[in-house]
Amino acid sequence: MRIAMDKQPLDDAASVTRFINEVKQSKPDGLLLIPFKKSHWEHVTRIVKEAGIPTVVLATLGILLVGHINQLHEKSGVYLINSLDNLDAVEEGMKMVQTAHWMKESRIVNIRGSETKETTVPHLGTQVRTVPHTKFYEEFKRTKITDAVKSLAKAYLKNAEKVVQPTKADILEAARTYFVLKRIIETEQADAMMMDCLPGLSRPHKHPPPCMGFMSLRDEGIAAGCQADLNATLTLMLVQQLFDKPGFQQNASMETEKNHYFGAHCTCASKLSG
């Protein structure tokens, strides 16, 4: 992240006008405004209104009154910090700005259907490149059981607390899916992926469930969404960028007689807490 600080203080209407015009020309991803006295507050609110871009405002305790805080603390696009020299909060706010930029520049490869097409997510600007299932099927056929595949399968077995059902052959096949997914991500120059795996799992199976591959991708900080669920994949991307931890995905389910709510066929990283 690059932060360019204006050398001139914004202490009067003329300097604020100059600054707003410069912002409109240079179009930065966001602003960091630091008022040092109450009389600066009208400059802050004017910049927020006229610049119209994501803004982090840092006011140390004693600068603002409750009325000032109420003006911006719930305003969309503004992260207002009224605290005692809390630079951690500033970092969080700037990370939000950085994440918004990253989402706009990012691409999701969507393995689904039979067509190749591209769309853009409204508001976030993330590109979604859809590639047909056949791309995964063909790549899976080409992917042999190499030493790297064997090593990953061995790690799956070693790190598992218990192996309940799959055979060693099943685990080798699961490891192959990671390398297939990683190669598709690289060839499509994507930052995240999602897949509708169900067609390939109908009989006769064209490939094994790719869940373990999803797990390994998330271990690397790559968002991997199940069932080509765009909202879930975008959320995984946001969580990864904002908190530096992988998220998880599940279907909500209920056991009515025991009054239990639980997650069914979950996917997550190898460590749920990151």
TrEMBL record:
Keywords: Carbohydrate metabolism, Isomerase. One of its GO terms (cellular component) is cytoplasm. The keyword Transmembrane does not apply. GO terms for biological process: monosaccharide metabolic process. InterPro entries: Fucose_isomerase_N/cen_sf. SUPFAM superfamilies: FucI/AraA N-terminal and middle domains (SSF53743). The keyword Isomerase applies. Transmembrane segments: none annotated. GO terms for molecular function: intramolecular oxidoreductase activity, interconverting aldoses and ketoses. This is Uncharacterized protein.
